[in-house]
Amino acid sequence: MPSRWMDDELVMFDDSVARALADIAPSDRQQSWREAGVVDRAAWEEAAAAGLLGLSVSPDFGGAGGDFRHEAVLIRHLGLAGAEGWGVPLHNAICAPYIEKYGTADQRDRWLPKIVSGELITAIAMTEPGAGSDLQGIRSTARPSGNGYAVNGQKTFITNGQIADLLIVVVKTDPAAGSKGVSLIVVETAQADGFRRGRNLDKIGLEMRDTSELFFDDVQVPADHLLGGVEGQGLYQLLKELPKERLIIAIESLAMIEAALDETLTYVRERQAFGKRLLDFQNTQFVLAECKTEATIARSFVDDCMERLLAGTLDAATASMAKYWVSERAQKIVDACQQLFGGYGYMNEYPIARMYKDVRVKRIYGGTTEVMKLLIARTLES
After folding, report:
1. Which residue from 87, 90, 107, 91 is spatially nearest to 99, judged by alpha carbons?
2. d(CA 220, CA 381)
3. According to the 3-state scheme, what is the secondary structure of the chain?
4. pLDDT at 1 over 80
5. Residues known to be catalytic
6. Domain ranges within the chain, ordered by starting residue
7. Cβ–Cβ contacts within 10 Å for residue 235, how many?
8. Domain 8-120: which topology?
9. What CATH number does the domain located at 123-230 have?
10. Per-residue pLDDT reduced to its tens digit, 303-357
């Protein structure tokens, strides 16, 4: 059934996204992406042609003029299709809004149309080898140099890192100013002498997602590439967007729950053991009843967070609860579903085996479960 935040237009959009992804990302093509460790640019171009890039970007810049509901529909269908490793949500729902919300008029005019067309694939470079959720602990710098900045530092675990043309880089423009010295600098990789891509990191899951190390050695960036044109606004910009980014992970986790249950129900309805279907065993029924109950609770929570986000009232603590709880339930449910497949659940040819690998990172990226609990705990005294 459609979520309560979906109107008739979104129901029709939901169907069109499902059909578009069936054409762009069939299972055999996804397997080629996993083997290559990256989604090819042709797929990005096809997604742009299908209108899937820039869903929530204003029509003034060539976008579809939708809102986060449209992004949520796409995120869900990427998960249902098995292509949730494709970094389109980062491009659409994280990077593009940074530029549209915080960029200058010139920055929006320069970059957003190319983001929508797929000419520029985007990434955001926050995490460093020695700094993850503690954004104030970053060591990358952007110091005045000529008519702009010289960017130095190293980033890691960067989604879309191998193919990104446009990087939003978290740096310190004033290392002595603490949180007020953090800024976002936009780097166009084709024009960046001193920029280098490191390894496409070897992960235990999400194999189609290029996840990279990035190096900046005196990369000269024009002054007008400072996002928003004012130094020291970076931490504010990041913190304003973090609730949405954590809700995205909850939506991804919920889609994986839904996909796992769908695959498992199909299997247990058909698989025979001891003369009857697996679904006819009480143990199978009890396991799946518990999974369905937790899936329903998760969906209700995510829908509530969606409505809060659309109303502008989704706070960091509630988003952290959603990210933590739904990602934890996703791993639990995928594990329970995989067990019902027996030995077949351990075979990579079965989607449930891929899900078992892919789901693990949901409890880590975007802030670990433990970090989410710390953020929630800070509200206990208020």
Report:
1. 107
2. 46
3. CCCCCCCHHHHHHHHHHHHHHHHHCCHHHHHHHHHHCCCCHHHHHHHHHCCCCCCCCCHHHCCCCCCHHHHHHHHHHHHHCCCCCCCHHHHHHHHHHHHHHHCCHHHHHHHHHHHHHCCCCEEEECCECCECCCHHHCCCEEEEECCEEEEEEEEEEEECCCCCCEEEEEEECCHHHHHHHEEEEEEEHHHCCCEEEEEECCCCCCCCCCEEEEEEEEEEEEHHHEHHHCCCCHHHHHHHHHHHHHHHHHHHHHHHHHHHHHHHHHHHHHCEECCEEHHHCHHHHHHHHHHHHHHHHHHHHHHHHHHHHHHCCCCHHHHHHHHHHHHHHHHHHHHHHHHHCHHHHHCCCCHHHHHHHHHHHHHCCCCCHHHHHHHHHCCCCC
4. no
5. 245
6. 8-120, 123-230, 236-377
7. 18
8. Butyryl-Coa Dehydrogenase, subunit A; domain 1 (1.10.540)
9. 2.40.110.10
10. 999 999 999 999 999 999 999 999 999 999 999 999 999 999 999 999 999 999 9
Confidence of residue 382 (pLDDT cuts 50, 70, 90): low
CA dist 378 and 363 (Å) reads 20
d(CA 155, CA 125): 6
In CATH, what number does 236-377 get? Answer: 1.20.140.10
Report the DSSP pairing between strands 166-172 and 122-125.
Answer: parallel
Q: Residue 179's pLDDT band (boundaries 50, 70, 90)? A: confident
